[in-house]
Write a structure and sequence with these properties.
This protein has 380 residues and is an alpha/beta fold. Helices cover 42% and strands 17% of the residues. Helix 11 crosses helix 14.
């Protein structure tokens, strides 16, 4: 570890596979020549954390207990003191809560809070708004990953609009560029014929991603056996999803691929990309599909409409409306020219708005600004 570089502590819930967690990892790996990064996980380290540890990255767990756990704030302050941290970057609200709490009695470096998405249902909590008035005095900069997320912070957290900056999530566009050769290879591996329309959904199998709606959508497509759905990801909802697939007799048209480490490769095989979430910030998986030139069929939830332009780069439907989603899937399945046109426009949009180079430059600028701002409070 180069002791002359800026030292950043990323505070996360866990480092299991997820959008915010992947971004935190990418911040660290992409900026190794500009800052040293350590990770503080409130809960378990997770699979991404284990991989980072094997690569020599400092990853610690704070061992949060259920309910309010003040010991987490104390442990975080100790970790930052031991590593002489210059900036704390809290990913999501609860990591921000403990980071700000640690600064009240113990002092410490300036705090950057990034909000990636909102809980569902999202509403204003008077006690939390009151607590924020105290905690936000210890926060130096607030970032929302999209305009809808920013508005939710204003409406439901009581944060002033002028305190919140929008920095869109970004990806390595080149890693997701389409490859005809890889497409043929993956389709052969998965048994996808030239006549099949392959639809991919990449998401953790949890309630917010609402895979049940995806399965019920396919129950409406039984007259179109060549339209096949591939679910990439795993999670606590898998047993119930498998039961629903069996109940509806869809095991021939829906394939569960589980957790995969080759998503950029898999996406090459897709003719469409599906998202059925009831709540989202700025979803990386939609951006990844667009970068590959794949048109998207998605619910209009959270910040999704900031990524997918309805009728331009994909088709949007209300969350939970399997009939509307099925109609969108069928519209694209029957029109190869429309798929091609939407895919091309999506690729252009991803390159213009959602590149990782733009995102990293913005965060590095904030790190430098915060570390030299004089807002650090000496540890006590």
């Amino acid at each position: 570890m180069n002791q002359d570089l800026l030292k950043v502590c990323q505070v996360v819930h866990t480092l299991n596979v997820g959008g915010a967690e992947i971004l935190a990892r990418e911040y660290a790996l992409r900026s190794r020549d500009q800052c040293n990064t350590l990770f503080a996980c409130l809960d378990e380290i997770g699979s991404l954390g284990e991989n980072l540890r094997r690569d020599g990255q400092v990853v610690e767990t704070l061992g949060r207990q259920s309910g309010f756990d003040f010991a987490v704030a104390r442990k975080l302050a100790r970790l930052c003191r031991e590593h002489n941290v210059d900036v704390i970057h809290a990913q999501q609200y609860t990591p921000f809560f403990y980071a700000a709490l640690s600064r009240i009695p113990f002092g410490g470096p300036p705090i950057l809070f990034t909000e990636h998405g909102r809980s569902f249902p999202d509403y204003r909590r008077s006690k939390r708004v009151f607590a924020n008035k105290v905690l936000l005095r210890r926060c130096d900069h607030i970032v929302a990953v999209g305009k809808q997320v920013k508005q939710a912070l204003i409406d439901n957290e009581g944060i002033s609009a002028n305190r919140i900056e929008v920095i869109y999530n970004g990806i390595d566009i080149n890693a997701f560029r389409h490859s005809p050769g890889v497409r043929a290879e993956v389709r052969q591996e998965l048994g996808i014929s030239d006549a099949d329309i392959a639809v991919f959904q990449v998401a953790r199998l949890n309630a917010l991603k609402d895979h049940g709606t995806a399965v019920r959508t396919w129950a409406r497509l039984t007259d179109c056996p060549t339209v096949r759905l591939f679910l990439v990801g795993d999670g606590e909802e898998r047993p119930s999803i498998e039961r629903l697939i069996d109940k509806l007799g869809l095991h021939r048209s829906i394939t569960l691929l589980g957790t995969r480490n080759d998503v950029p490769r898999l996406i090459n095989a897709a003719d469409m990309f599906l998202m059925t979430s009831v709540s989202e910030g700025i979803p990386l998986t939609l951006i990844e599909a667009m970068a590959n030139g794949v048109p998207c069929v998605s619910t209009d939830a959270g910040g999704i409409a900031e990524v997918v332009l309805d009728g331009v780069t994909g088709l949007l439907s209300p969350a939970g409306d399997d009939a509307a989603i099925a109609a969108s899937v069928m519209r694209l399945a029957k029109d190869a020219d429309l798929r091609k046109r939407m895919g091309e426009q999506g690729c252009e949009r991803a390159e213009t708005l959602f590149s990782d180079s733009t995102m990293h430059a913005a965060y590095q600028g904030l790190y430098r600004q915060m570390s030299s701002s004089g807002t650090r409070r000496e540890f006590r």
